[in-house]
Amino acid sequence: MHESHLIEPVIKGISEHAQREGAKKVTKVRLKIGALVGVNEDTFKETFSVLAKGTMLEGAEVEITDFPGTRVEVVSFDVE
């Protein structure tokens, strides 16, 4: 799972921020992924789903936008 090292810090960062804001669940995550990162969108979403199990991001919809770059950026996320 090449994507794990990209996804784990995203899940951790969003979880920490959402908890500070008093959220109970993250329902949607919007990400920008650089084309040069070299990930497959379907594989990325599947891995995200597996790694999010047991966290407040479990079941969250993941929306991905490509851009010319070499990083993963969190654009925004929705909470309950």
Describe the fold and architecture.
This protein has a three-stranded mixed beta sheet with strand order 2-1-3, covered by helices on one side. The protein is built from two helices and three strands. The protein has one domain: hypothetical protein PF0899 fold. The model has no long low-confidence stretch (mean pLDDT 96). The protein is an alpha+beta fold. The relative contact order is 0.32.
Briefly, what is this?
The chain is of the alpha+beta class.
Sequence-ordered SSE layout with sheet pairings:
Elements: H1 4-20, E1 26-34, H2 41-52, E2 61-67, E3 72-79
Parallel strand pairs: 1-2
Antiparallel strand pairs: 1-3
Helix pairs in contact: 1-2
Integer tally of domains: 1
- Which percent range describes the beta-strand content? 25-35%
Strand order of the largest sheet: 2-1-3
CATH topology: hypothetical protein PF0899 fold
Radius of gyration: 12 Å
Shape type: globular
| pLDDT averaged residue by residue | 96
Helix/strand order, N-terminal first:
HEHEE
List the total number of helices.
Answer: 2
The biggest beta sheet is recorded as:
3 strands, mixed
Class of secondary structure makeup: alpha+beta
Q: Provide the low-confidence segments as ranges.
A: none
Question: How much helix is in the residues?
Answer: 25-40%
**Count of distinct strands:** 3
CATH class category = Alpha Beta
Do you know the CATH architecture?
2-Layer Sandwich
How far is it from the N-terminal to the C-terminal residue, by CA? 29 Å
